[in-house]
Amino acid sequence: MSKKFEWYPTECAPELYPINIVSAKLILKDHSAVAIPSGSDMANGWGAIGQIHIVGDNNKPMPESLRLLWFSYVENEFYQGDFMLPKNALTKLFNEGFIDPNTKQPDYYDRIVVGFAPGGYVAVWAKGGQITTEVGFFKANKVDYDWQKFSGGLDKSREDYIASALDDALDTDQIKIATIPFGWKGKYEDDYRKVHSLSIANTLEARVSGALISYFDGSAEYHVSETAANRWNIHQTVPHRIVWDWTSDSQKNLQTKIVFDEAEIMDAFKKLSREHPNAPLTLLAEVLPANYSVSIILKNQFASIILKQCTISTYEE
């Protein structure tokens, strides 16, 4: 008998690219299904938690496959897919759990998140607390679907229906960005997922107790630093946000949060990788403990780029 875990399904889509799920199900071994919330327009963020429907048994086996049908407003396209999930990988994650960055104690995954991106791309993550681990990435196919059935028979053209949905989901500036033809192209299957030979480091050495690192591919990891080593190079895709817990000269417990500007850090990675594709990269935070100022540098052995558009804050815990 398959081991059961307490988990709930939820969904997400990138902030600029709202979608509507027509039907989405996680299929179990006995062919029963756990429905992913559907019917609402959403653009809550890549890797984020959406709606959660608590129905049926709390404890369930890991799902074996995923069946999806959804509409992408920006592309004016329906997508459909049926995918096998890595059940063993999911089971291993739910068995092992992770260290919670707030309590520093063991915790466990309790959600399966399904993400819907432009181009028909689908990501699946295991999530618990602030930790998110990708377990699958797929590509669905474009399909024709009965528009009248989707729109509920509203007396409104398809174009007007889409324009109204985008206006509800995004502000004017966001709509201008989102509706640039193929402005999203390359992000979800390439830019966000490209693996680099990357180390993430800082100049605080043994003062760091841990680092919560979020990535543009929707994943988030927590690393505990129990020695003077202050480098983490497990994930190696482009980081979106880093939070360091560290101790000042006066023994104050501090936290430094760094949020990267997407265009700037992506351009820096591309530039250094293009010029020297095999050279390992280091993303270095130079911290001056006296005034908590932080400089962020992406470098390899040949060149370095200072990242000036980061949002950086340090405060006492």
Compute the CA-based radius of gyration.
Answer: 21 Å
Largest sheet: 6 strands, antiparallel
How far the N terminus sits from the C terminus, by CA atoms, comes to: 46 Å
For the residues shown, what is the average pLDDT?
91
Q: What number of structural domains do the residues give? A: 2
| Spans where pLDDT lies below 50 across 5 or more residues | none
The SS-based structural class is alpha+beta
Output the number of helix runs. 6
Strand content: 35-45%
Q: Percentage of helical residues? A: 10-25%
Overall geometric form: globular
Care to give the gist of this entry?
With 317 residues, the protein is α+β, with helices and mostly antiparallel strands.
Question: How do the strands and helices of this protein lay out in sequence?
Answer:
Layout: E1 4-6, E2 8-12, E3 19-27, E4 33-35, E5 41-42, E6 59-61, E7 65-72, E8 77-84, H1 87-96, E9 98-99, E10 106-107, E11 111-117, E12 121-128, E13 131-139, E14 141-143, H2 147-151, H3 158-169, H4 172-178, H5 187-191, E15 198-202, E16 208-215, E17 220-224, E18 239-247, E19 253-259, H6 262-275, E20 281-288, E21 293-299, E22 304-307, E23 311-316
Parallel strand pairs: 2-11, 15-20
Antiparallel strand pairs: 1-6, 3-4, 3-5, 3-7, 7-8, 8-14, 9-10, 11-12, 12-13, 16-17, 16-18, 18-19, 19-23, 20-21, 21-22
Provide an overview of this structure.
The mean pLDDT is 91. Strand 16 and strand 17 form a beta hairpin. The protein is globular and about 65 Å long. With 317 residues, the chain is an alpha+beta fold. Helix content is 17%, strand content 41%. It starts with a strand and ends with a strand. The chain folds into two domains: 4-143, no CATH class; 194-316, no CATH class. It is built from six helices and 23 strands.
